[in-house]
Backbone:
């Protein structure tokens, strides 16, 4: 005996299953997607244009989105006055506009600080990429977080016999310096350690990763380059006469290394020869390095509180400025940003500098509590912009613990403070 059927020949069960199916975004046509995209901001639109060719054509060719671009920029009152865009894709204009918003937010906007407990004991390192935050060093685990929801997306254990010294990550894996070995954690959870014979080296102090190679700065002044696929040390480059304290890499196959004696050396990743040596006027240990490939500027932070900048096109110092009375531990900038540089150090003040002049643009500390989640996990606080003549010593240390590491994203900065808390500074 067959069950009841509807007029269209399908059973009620089949109809119910069909009605429960969700509609994929791929089934939406051009006009509907244009409407959806019109609700997005410029940076999100630029991301959408990179998803697939169909979306890229909509973003770059749609009249509606071109009008949105001009309307949100406030350049023209109505569409009849709008000129044709240049030959550059619309996503290029959107990215430029988004970067202008990012820069103005850091320079002039107000700031809110979200703070949550990330680890059970103190940790001092963070990285932020692709909307993800990775924290660790000091604890026996690394944790991966969403930069939007602050949910923990993964936990990666460190072998008990060794300590995590430094790490980096990409979309598929985490590469870490553990003791005198290299470790790889797949995002799915699998962990592997380089074989002892090929993978050991004198004490490593810092690591940077640029697929397919991990670069380790060592206590003996050498930099060791490891191939992630063969799992062997492919090159040893003698870069410093003192311990290598920090590293930065460029996509153009350059390695930048800072030393405890205050010198910076540049070498090619594919050779073992030095390209150049840079010496800041204040020759106290280099604590942090950052290279901007868009402007060919190299930034350094020193133990004495000085920040320095070199223009590698001229191989000369562009500026040097004492921005803090004590150690600068970390500095960084948003990818493709050629205007603002964020620095942090032992005095706990988050400072924004002009990349091209070194001028102090703005500085911030955390202010009073605004709200706390019912679970007590997340705290929302206000950030306070400091005046130029503010006395740092008069600000309570509880609101400005040392900034041990920072990472910069779109209108946000994540910081660690050698404690249990993660702070995300959001600029508006």
Residues:
């Amino acid at each position: 005996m067959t069950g009841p059927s509807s007029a269209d020949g399908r059973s009620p069960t089949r109809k119910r299953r069909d009605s429960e199916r969700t509609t994929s975004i791929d089934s939406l046509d051009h006009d509907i997607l244009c409407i959806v995209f019109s609700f997005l901001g410029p940076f999100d639109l630029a991301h959408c244009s990179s998803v697939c060719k169909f979306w890229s054509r909509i973003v770059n060719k749609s009249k509606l989105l071109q009008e949105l671009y001009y309307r949100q920029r406030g350049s023209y009152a109505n569409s009849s006055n709008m000129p044709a865009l240049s030959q550059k894709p619309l996503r290029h204009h959107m990215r430029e506009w988004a970067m202008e918003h990012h820069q103005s937010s850091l320079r002039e906007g107000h700031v809110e600080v979200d703070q949550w407990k990330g680890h059970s004991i103190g940790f001092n390192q963070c990285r932020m990429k692709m909307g993800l935050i990775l924290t660790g060093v000091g604890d026996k685990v690394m944790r991966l977080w969403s930069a939007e929801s602050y949910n923990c997306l993964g936990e990666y254990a460190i072998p008990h016999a060794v300590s995590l010294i430094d790490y980096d990550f990409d979309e598929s894996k985490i590469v870490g310096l553990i003791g005198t070995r290299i470790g790889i954690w797949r995002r799915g959870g699998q962990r592997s350690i380089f074989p002892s014979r090929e993978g050991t080296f004198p004490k490593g102090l810092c690591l940077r990763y640029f697929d397919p190679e991990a670069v380790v700065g060592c206590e003996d002044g050498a930099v060791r380059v490891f191939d992630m696929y063969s799992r062997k040390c492919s090159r040893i480059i003698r870069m410093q006469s003192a311990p290598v304290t920090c590293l930065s890499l460029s996509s153009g196959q350059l390695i930048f290394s800072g030393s405890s004696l205050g010198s910076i050396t540049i070498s090619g990743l594919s050779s073992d020869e030095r390209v150049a040596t840079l010496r800041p006027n204040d020759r106290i240990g280099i604590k942090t390095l950052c290279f901007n490939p868009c402007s060919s500027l190299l930034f350094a932070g020193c133990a004495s509180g000085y920040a320095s900048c070199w223009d590698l096109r001229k191989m000369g110092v562009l500026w040097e400025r004492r921005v803090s009375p004590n150690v600068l531990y970390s500095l960084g900038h948003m990818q493709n940003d050629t205007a603002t540089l964020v620095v942090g150090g032992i005095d706990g003040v988050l400072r924004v500098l002009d990349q091209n002049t070194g001028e102090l643009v703005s500085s911030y500390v955390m202010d009073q509590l605004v709200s706390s989640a019912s679970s007590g996990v997340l705290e929302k606080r206000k950030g306070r912009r400091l005046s130029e003549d503010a006395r740092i010593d008069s600000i309570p240390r509880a609101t400005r613990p040392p900034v041990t590491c920072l990472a910069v994203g779109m209108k946000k900065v994540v910081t660690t403070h050698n404690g249990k808390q993660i702070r995300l500074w959001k600029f508006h």
